[in-house]
Amino acid sequence: MRSVTKLLLKSTRLPARPSRETFGLSPEHLRMLRALKTPAQIQKFVDALAYQYADTAASPQRVLREGKGHCLEGALLAAAALRVNGHPPLLMDLEAVQDDDHVVAIYRDRGLWGGIAKSNFAGLRFRAPIYRTLRELALSYFEHYYNLRGERTLRAYSRPVNLSRLDGRHWMTSEEDVWCVPELLIAAKHYPLFPHKVARALPRLDRRSFEAGMHGWVKH
Q1: Are 54 and 98 in contact (CB under 8 A)?
Q2: Is 219 part of any domain?
Q3: Range of the structural domain that residue 76 is part of
Q4: Contacts of 38 (CB under 8 A, 6+ apart)
Q5: Which of 31, 72, 193, 210 stands the most exposed, by the fewest C-beta atoms within 10 Å?
Q6: For the chain, what is the domain count?
Q7: pLDDT at 209
Q8: How far apart, in whole angstroms, are the C-alpha atoms of residue 110 and residue 217?
Q9: Backbone angles phi, psi at 171, to 5 degrees
Q10: Residue-by-residue DSSP string for 110-133
Q11: What is the CATH number of the domain that holds 14?
């Protein structure tokens, strides 16, 4: 596992500098994304979007225009903002059982990993760049990842998915749903966080932690 992580680190290391490309974005939307200079600013912007419960996969340009989005769409917007400011557009899929998967836009600063995400669960959003490996980053979401029965549901994480592979499908600007993104995430290699025997013995979350994580949660 350690050698795989080192390989992924080398393959995704790119300097952070503003890109001169427009990526097909409108001038207005390009300015909006370029104004988000840091991951923390991107997270604040993503948090401000209205959370929508819909079976959609809207492109970042659509999300900017409509001002709403869910987990996947928030991660796509974050990846687009990272890209126009010089980072590669990387996503990581967190795979769960008896629960929805979660998608995180990931970035590196000084060789360490961080994450940006949209969620109604308080603990499933921003991660400062302090994690040496992707496994460490994924594990940081474990205690906060549970379903409405209080079951801890996170089981695996994917290798980084570079969305530049989908530039030909116009993932940043398409007016149609970009289902090619979740398809690529599902197809990506995933790594288990712990053995199945451990998963079967996991206790449910205590009520205090459950209620703290649900702070601000809105039921649809």
Answers
A1: no
A2: no
A3: 2-213
A4: none
A5: 31
A6: 1
A7: 84
A8: 34
A9: -65, -20
A10: TTEEEEE---SSTTSS-EEEEESS
A11: 3.10.620
Distances (CA, A) of 188 to 75, 182, 184: 16, 10, 6
* 3-class secondary-structure state, position 103: strand
Distance CA 41, CA 126 (A): 11
What is the chain's length?
220
96 CB-near residues (< 8 Å, 6+ apart): 102, 145, 147, 153, 154, 155
pTM for this predicted structure: 0.88
Q: Are 156 and 145 in contact (CB under 8 A)?
A: no
Torsion of the alpha carbons at 84, 162, 136 and 6, rounded to the nearest 10: -110
Task: Write the CA distances from 209 to 53, 130, 140, 188, integer angstroms.
Answer: 24, 23, 15, 32
Could you tell me if residue 90 is inside a domain?
yes
Instruction: Give the C-alpha separation, 147 to 56, whole Å.
Output: 22
Diameter of the chain measured on Cα atoms? 53
